[in-house]
């Protein structure tokens, strides 16, 4: 009878060990999948390359955005030559830009 109790206990322990092994294996697979897409996972070289590309894209986007906004602003101010004070100042500004462009 003592052997029966011991055997059952060993079987339960073996089942628990099997469940823990399966859970650990599943957890290891999940961690591997998370490391594939998480930006801080993986090599330092990969992280630095991604950060560099992100910085370049951000800088380029800001430069293009500022250029578009300034171009629209200059165009709108160029259309406002009807206003006497601004019109004269804008005319001088446009002349200076044209002279600078001819110099290149």
| Helix percentage range | over 70%
Rg estimate, integer Å: 35 Å
Tell me the series of helices and strands, N- to C-terminal.
Answer: HHH
- Given the helix and strand composition, which structural class is it? mainly alpha
Strand content: under 5%
Number of domains: 2
**Overall average residue pLDDT:** 84
Offer a few descriptive terms.
rod-shaped; 0% strand; 104 residues; mainly alpha; 2 domains; 3 helices
Describe the structure.
- This protein is mainly alpha-helical and 104 residues long.
- It has two domains: 42 residues; 45 residues, no CATH class.
- It has three helices and no strands.
- The chain starts with a helix and ends with a helix.
Give a quick precis of the structure.
The protein has 104 residues and is an all-alpha fold. It contains three helices and no strands. The model has no long low-confidence stretch (mean pLDDT 84).
List the helices and strands and how they pair.
Elements: H1 2-37, H2 44-79, H3 84-103
